[in-house]
Write a structure and sequence with these properties.
The longest helix has 17 residues. The chain is of the alpha/beta class and 811 residues long. It has 25 helices and 35 strands. The strands form nine sheets. Strands 16-17-15-18-19-14-20 form a seven-stranded parallel β-sheet, sandwiched between helices. Strands 21-31-30-22-29-28 form a six-stranded parallel β-sheet, sandwiched between helices. Helix 1 crosses helix 15 and helix 21 runs parallel beside helix 22. It binds zinc ion (2 copies). One zinc ion (ZN) binds next to loops. One zinc ion binds next to loops.
Length: 811
């Protein structure tokens, strides 16, 4: 065994740590170990085993958590690539890639020391007078802690804090005074749940009735049954052990099999009846998969053109060849109905990973995949790290969806990681979308990706007609700010009379987005963010949509005490109420994050529309997603262009995508659809091209804009954000980094800033940022590395300088 091992730990430091391997421990590269780190125990991933003695003294490993690697060589390389590309500590990357947190229980405990016993004793002797005499509240709590520990001995932190009502800082102070000692009680739990199974070996020999029943049960079940199940038969427990002793049955420990879902499959089967364009696309994907070389493909198919059927058919072919495939879907895409379809198609071979799983369930799915029980993986962002072997096909559905970007360390983009993983595995990656991102479309145009087009909707259903309503003109003609234009109201009326269905999109939840005092002009802002709080009428509260902070609805102005408080603007909750008022007989549903708590709610609302239980569905961008709805003949868009007013270079792209998606919801049955698009930007090209269903036109125009402005895909872009809960600190740090950027030469890189971030304060932090652009990724990477090193040198904590490579959110 080599003497040393390098371990990547989940701490904000860009290095691996070397430990000595004590006799008797057998760590493996790609497996987890338990190590001492500062005052605690951490689990990390072994990246190297070697005999190179480091210059500093090393500590011993505490234990080995995995006797075999949890990461194969490819996933280790992928993790290292992410760490390098996104400038993230490799230990944090590995932690993100491995959903096994549930198997490692972090715990800290405290016990009283001799010095603490003495303090407690002295306090008791000096009597209550000494303790009460101007004693600060803290001291009371300290004695409460000592009392508790003296009586109970070693106590876990959570129990101690609850029992003695002691804040963390106070305990830390007591540790410094050496009154109490802190110990790490972390330990590994069982890696995989094991079950006992009985396996039939032989049926020879004479058997009594009970024995015969057991043997018959085993034989009928195919020779293997969990012992639990056999013990539920009305047979003495000793019968099984007798059979085992006679060698007729083996009793083994096996990893538990976990049912992926209790849902019954829907009766509808996928009928892979393809039109010629679908057929050609599928064939093209399959040829590349069989070629066993890396290939990138962009499947551009308008809404309703049947992309999903192509994904599933391609995956089924991969399954039949005994290889693996991963399908990534956006957050909201994994509804129970989709899961049921997947089970119907792939049986027990599918693993479904979504954000609703508990840590334990996630770990169970991970083990199923790792064991090779499930080679078809479907999931949201982090499913890109699923430990499949022999990866043949990686599919990213709705590849432009922002939920693929992780907005915390490590800030990776799952689509780009998928492409890199496919490259490393010599696999095929298919990016699918009705509205591809500029980046992917550009790669296809430059022939880095093969472009597969599905130009027609299934059954050649026509695209809906789009009518643009200029809301500035509507204001002039009606003399007041309208939420629903006269034209849209007419169209809705008509549909309701004909018993057809309507969807109305307003991409803002809540009742009123702004609460303003008419006396002093103050708007109600969040305590933690420089953001107006939104009024939620039904729940009677004000809510910050960025940090979740809530307050009661104010009756008077917090600033001047005036009663002239006005609720301004319209969110989806108010829109629903307005429509109820205008169309009292209509059955109206709403779909936004306030009405939808989980995927089930989402599915339920869309099903209600599908079953004809609703006439009208109001909602945020959520209504643009999900399965086909057949009765909708009118889509009203009352607020989807708000983003066009934001200082974000992707605003036009996002607006175009949203408008195109929601327009695609109209007229999917036999009746042709119509879209009424209300906008304050009727001349904006994103609105115009969306109204004309002109993808190519939009991309050409937008690419020209990006090229002039040196934005992606023509440049690599990174956002460097400096944050602190103290304004002067945030200012000082951004000034320090700004000076460094000025002083140092960095050819071929544009640095904009420091500037206040568009949202100056967020979750209690003040924020300043730099935007860096360069045609060369390598140069950008080197510069980012040096600025991080300089920040460390200047004692700016690593957690307060956020480097976001390929940032999608610049606010
Ligand atoms: Zn006021
Ligand atoms: Zn907030």
């Amino acid at each position: 065994m080599p003497e040393f091992c390098d371990v990547a730990l989940p701490v904000p430091l860009d290095i691996v740590f070397t430990y000595s391997v004590p006799d008797g421990l057998l760590p493996v590269v790609g497996g987890r170990v338990l190590v001492p780190f500062r005052q605690q125990r951490l689990s990390g991933v072994v990246t190297d085993l070697h005999d190179r003695k480091p210059k500093v003294a090393t500590k011993n490993l505490i234990g080995v958590l995995d006797p075999a690697p949890v990461f194969d060589e490819q996933l280790i390389r992928l993790g290292q690539w992410i760490a390098n590309y996104y400038l993230a500590p490799v230990g944090e990357v590995f932690r993100t890639m491995l959903p096994l947190g549930a198997e490692f229980k972090r715990a800290v405990g405290y016990r009283i020391t001799d010095k603490g016993q003495m303090a407690l004793h002295l306090a008791g002797m000096s009597g209550s007078s000494a303790r009460s005499q101007k004693t600060p509240e803290d001291q009371f709590v300290e004695f409460r802690v000592l009392d508790y520990l003296a009586e109970r001995g070693m106590t876990r932190e959570e129990s101690l804090r609850a029992a003695a009502r002691a804040p963390k800082a106070l305990l830390a102070g007591m540790v410094r005074k050496k009154w109490i000692a802190r110990e790490d009680l972390s330990e590994a739990r069982d890696a995989a749940r094991m079950v006992k199974v009985a396996v039939l070996k032989s049926v020879e020999g004479r058997l009594n009735a009970n024995q015969q029943t057991l043997i018959d049960t085993l034989a009928a079940a195919g020779g293997k049954v969990p012992v639990d199940v056999l013990q539920s038969l009305e047979i003495p427990r000793t019968t099984l052990s007798t059979l085992a002793k006679r060698g007729l049955v083996d009793i083994l420990q096996e990893p538990a099999q976990f049912a992926v879902s209790g849902l019954k499959p829907r009766p509808r089967l996928f009928d892979f009846q393809f039109n010629p364009a679908q057929q050609a696309a599928l064939q093209s994907v399959q040829e590349r998969v069989n070629g066993r070389n890396f290939a990138g493909m962009l499947l551009h198919g308008i809404t309703g053109s049947g992309k999903t059927a192509i994904y599933l058919a391609a995956m089924r072919a991969v399954l039949e060849a005994g290889r693996s495939a991963i399908l990534l879907v956006p957050e909201i895409g994994l509804t129970p109905a989709v899961a049921a379809d997947l089970h119907q198609l792939f049986g027990e071979e599918v693993a479904i990973l979504h954000s609703g799983l508990s840590d334990k369930e996630r770990a169970e799915q991970w083990h199923r995949i790792k064991r090779g029980d499930a080679g078809m993986v479907v999931g949201t962002r982090s499913a890109v790290f699923a430990p499949v072997s022999d990866l043949a096909l990686m599919i990213v559905d709705e590849e432009q969806d922002p939920s693929y970007k992780q907005e915390e360390m490590p800030r990776y983009h799952a689509r780009d990681v998928a492409v890199m993983r496919a490259k490393m595995a010599n696999a095929v990656v298919v990016l699918g979308s009705a509205t591809p991102s500029l980046e992917s479309y550009f790669n296809a145009k430059k022939h880095k990706y093969t472009l597969l087009e599905l130009p027609d909707r299934v059954e050649k259903r026509p695209l809906p007609a789009v009518e643009i309503i200029d809301m500035r003109q509507e204001f002039q003609e009606t003399g007041s700010e309208q939420v629903i234009s006269r034209r849209l109201a007419e169209e809705i009326e008509e549909r309701l009379e004909r018993k057809e269905q309507v969807m109305v999109l307003l991409n803002r939840r809540g009742y009123s987005p702004v609460v303003l005092c008419r006396a002093c002009g103050k708007t109600l802002e969040c305590n933690n963010c420089a953001i107006a709080m939104t009024h939620h009428k039904r729940s009677h509260r004000m809510e910050c949509h960025y940090c979740g902070y809530t307050t009661p609805v104010p009756k008077v102005c917090g600033q001047c005490g005036s009663e002239y408080i006005y609720f301004l603007g319209t969110g989806s909750e108010k829109l629903e109420e307005l429509l109820h008022g205008m169309f009292p007989q209509a059955r109206i549903g709403r779909l936004d994050r306030d009405t939808v708590r989980g995927r089930e709610d989402f599915e339920r609302a869309l099903n209600a529309l599908d079953e004809g239980e609703l006439d009208l569905l109001v909602g945020t961008q959520m209504i643009a997603k999900g399965h086909d709805i057949h009765g909708v003949t009118l889509v009203g868009v009352v607020g989807a262009d708000m983003a066009l007013g934001l200082p974000d270079f992707r605003a036009a792209e996002r607006t175009f995508q949203l408008l195109t998606q929601v327009a695609g919801r109209a007229g999917r049955g036999q009746t042709p659809g119509k879209v009424v698009l209300q906008t304050y930007f009727p001349d904006h090209y994103a609105v115009q091209y969306a109204a004309q269903h002109d993808f190519a036109g939009f991309y050409d125009k937008e690419l020209r804009f990006r090229s002039w402005m040196h934005y992606p895909p023509y440049s690599a872009l990174a956002n460097v954000l400096v944050r602190s809960n103290k304004l002067d600190e945030a200012l000082r740090w951004s000034g320090v980094l700004g000076k460094w950027f000025e002083k140092t030469r960095h050819e071929g890189i544009r640095v904009l800033g420091p500037a206040a971030a568009p949202i100056l304060r967020l979750k209690q932090d003040y924020r300043y940022h730099f935007v860096l652009k360069s045609a060369s990724r390598e140069k950008l990477n080197v510069l980012l590395r040096s600025i991080l090193a300089y920040a460390t040198e200047q004692k700016i904590p690593r957690t307060q300088v956020i480097v976001d490579v390929d940032a999608v959110w610049l606010m």
